[in-house]
Specification:
alpha+beta; 4-stranded mixed β-sheet; elongated
């Protein structure tokens, strides 16, 4: 049984690994073309660094171990976003806007869903140093463009704003325990439970909290929200920001969900989730998390998004099947060796047989190099 892997952990075999790597290159090139610089944070960090600021909600998802050199507790990263915030705030120390991208494996103590891996391949982009809604729009456009590049259509991008619930909870004077309870009920869209939990909440905040699960749909929801929610400055600002996003990218399939409060203790502004046809969960998540770098020396405005390339690889349309050319062993044949090298320079996959090897067990070899007269030519391999 030594070959068994832990539950929700799996190898990526050649076809899947090649697909993930292909998507990684496409997405990172898309980011790079828009000025997002690639960083590679370490897999392990001291625990307080991983769970500080942006990472507080990751405590239960993080594997922990003791560093044999220092005796301090370390963590295996469950999210690269806090590491990117540390790099921006503590290492780069730029005064203006910083754009960072990343891609790497993360490890979760528990899977996010029944079908999810505990070792996602997280790819994402973060923008630091700009507090305006234009940065959120830029990140959302970046995300939508990435899905366009990998030819995976996005059917819906849900927009929300955690500032709306935060303003209502503060104005209503909800104690922390009550706030957490109402938050969980809103996330579950448990309307009967929400009504019961808000019995003692003063009006008009009681009615506002109870109507939040119904504020879901198209752009018209923002007009309804302006009429049905209290005229608190923070709520008006949040609704204006969401309206700006919709008007700024009319080509994107936006919808509104004001009770979607995922990452409530992490985000503090616009949040968004992208969905694909036939897939029930969000394929990408993002939002604003200002102040994430405070624990690392500088509180910076921040917004970004990430997705799991393993899941994306399962959903994205399959590309052109890989193929290869089977070549005899060149040995001391300089002409054949030069021909093989030239083909590889042109981007072809050439499998050179070892002495005594007669067949290709790896890539799909659909062609072969054959010596015709004095020239090497490429021929199709006929199936038996």
């Amino acid at each position: 049984m030594n070959w068994l892997l832990p539950e929700y952990i799996a190898d990526a075999l050649p076809a899947e690994a090649a697909r993930i790597e292909q998507l990684r290159r496409v997405v990172l090139d898309h980011f790079r073309a828009r000025g997002f610089e690639f960083v590679m944070p370490p897999m392990l960090e001291f625990l307080e660094s991983l769970l500080t600021g942006a990472g507080q909600d990751l405590h239960l998802r993080t594997f922990k171990l003791v560093d044999q050199l220092s005796g301090r507790t370390m963590g295996v990263r469950a999210d690269i976003t806090p590491q990117a915030a540390r790099i921006d705030a503590h290492l780069l120390n730029h005064q203006g806007v910083t754009r960072l991208s990343y891609c790497g494996s993360v490890l979760h103590t528990l899977p996010a869903s029944i079908s999810a891996s505990r070792e996602p391949v997280q790819v994402g982009a973060e923008l630091y140093g700009y507090a305006g809604i234009a940065a959120d729009l830029d990140i959302i456009r970046l995300m939508a463009g990435a899905f366009e590049k990998i030819k995976l259509p996005v059917s819906r991008i849900d927009l929300g704003h955690v500032g709306i619930f935060r303003a209502l909870a503060e104005a209503a004077g909800l104690p922390q325990a009550a706030e957490e309870n109402v938050l969980n009920l809103l996330q579950a869209k448990d309307v009967p439970g929400l009504i019961e939990a808000c019995v003692d909440v003063p009006s008009p905040y009681r009615e506002a909290l109870q109507v939040l699960p119904q504020l879901y749909g198209g752009a018209e929801v923002l007009q309804r929200a302006a009429l049905e929610l209290p005229a608190l400055p923070a709520i008006g600002e949040a609704l204006d920001g969401l309206r700006h996003l919709i008007e700024g990218a009319p080509e994107l399939p936006f919808s509104i969900d004001l009770s979607d409060l995922r990452g409530y203790h992490y985000h503090n502004g616009v949040v968004f989730a992208a969905y694909c046809p036939g897939y029930p969960a969000a394929i990408a998540l993002g939002g604003r998390y200002d102040g994430a770098g405070k624990a690392f020396g500088r509180a910076r405005p921040a917004t970004g998004f990430s997705m799991d390339l393993r899941e994306v690889a399962r959903l994205a349309p399959a590309g052109k099947p890989s193929s290869a050319i089977l070549a005899p062993n060149a040995g001391h044949d300089k002409i054949l060796a030069a021909h093989i090298a030239a083909l590889r320079e042109q981007g072809e996959v050439v499998v050179e047989l070892l002495p005594g090897e007669t067949a290709c067990e790896g890539p799909l070899c659909d062609r072969k190099l054959a010596l015709v007269g004095e020239h090497w030519i490429i021929e199709a391999i006929q199936e038996d």
